[in-house]
Design a protein that fits this description.
four-stranded antiparallel sheet, single chain, 49% helix, alpha+beta, three-stranded antiparallel sheet
Length: 258
């Protein structure tokens, strides 16, 4: 199964590049903006479009390589038992939305012709979308379909952000906020401080605009968030799980081949 292993190796290389990119740059940040002329301060989320787009392209490459690796491994085992060109065109690793439909899907993909053991190995992998299924494999299949039609643009998850966390870095940040959320807005929280006159701004080297921006040191998770994905998934752990699940599936098919 050399071609399948080459595909998984390529996916791992892309994952290493993505990990390096996210360690070096942040596609999502949380900012403090101060207008020293008017005295207005505000916090807000900022998205680095260039980095977010690069992440989307790399994620798509990882997912497509893993999905192709499954098909390559499956083809190598199953194609010898196909009897027509039409059957060969239908050969691909079987996925099912439901647990009940998995065996039928596997049989339609000719798994039972290889051997009962091979069919059982596929059923044991549980590549279906219901509870109890192999979640990384099912999600891999779902995201690969999405990426065929549009970019898997990641989102920033600001749910770990709190007012206490901001107060530690911005002593004058409003206290007592309740039932409040942060992130993905042009302005999340605004408040006022005493403005500076021209001489004060010149002395403290405030820009002529009077506006100073500062990135805050807060956790912003990079996640997959899409209507087709039930829950937001942290990008790097999710991709690592998919790589591992793909390796395991290829190994299981290889072990069960006649």
């Amino acid at each position: 199964m050399d071609s399948a292993l080459l595909k998984t190796r390529r996916a791992s290389e892309h994952l290493t590049n993505l990990t390096t990119l996210l360690a070096r740059t942040r596609p999502f940040a949380y900012m403090l903006e101060t207008n020293y002329r008017t005295g207005e301060r505000a916090t807000y989320a900022r998205r680095n479009e260039e980095i977010a787009s690069r992440c989307a392209l790399i994620c798509g490459d990882i997912i497509h390589n893993l999905r192709s690796a499954l098909d390559h491994a499956y083809w190598e085992v199953v194609s010898p038992v196909a009897t027509t060109e039409a059957e060969r065109r239908w050969i691909q690793f079987p996925f099912s939305e439901t647990a009940a439909g998995l065996e039928g899907t596997a049989r339609n993909k000719l798994a039972d012709r290889v051997s009962p053991a091979f069919l059982q190995a596929l059923l044991d992998l549980r590549p279906h979308g219901e509870t109890g299924g192999n979640e990384p494999l099912a999600l891999l299949h779902r995201l690969d379909i999405i990426d065929k039609h549009r970019l898997l643009v990641p989102s920033g998850d600001y749910t770990r952000l709190s007012s206490d966390m901001l107060i530690r870095q911005i002593p004058d940040f409003p206290r007592g906020l309740v039932n409040a959320g942060f992130g993905q807005n042009r302005r999340d929280v605004t408040w006022n401080i005493p403005p500076m006159n021209r001489e004060q701004r010149r002395t403290t080297r405030i820009p002529a605009s009077g506006i100073v921006e500062r990135e805050l040191d807060v956790p912003v998770e990079v996640v997959f968030a899409s209507p087709e994905v039930p829950f937001s998934r942290s990008v790097l752990p999710t991709l690592h799980n998919m790589v591992e699940a793909t390796h395991n599936a290829i190994q299981a098919m290889n072990n069960a081949r006649p």
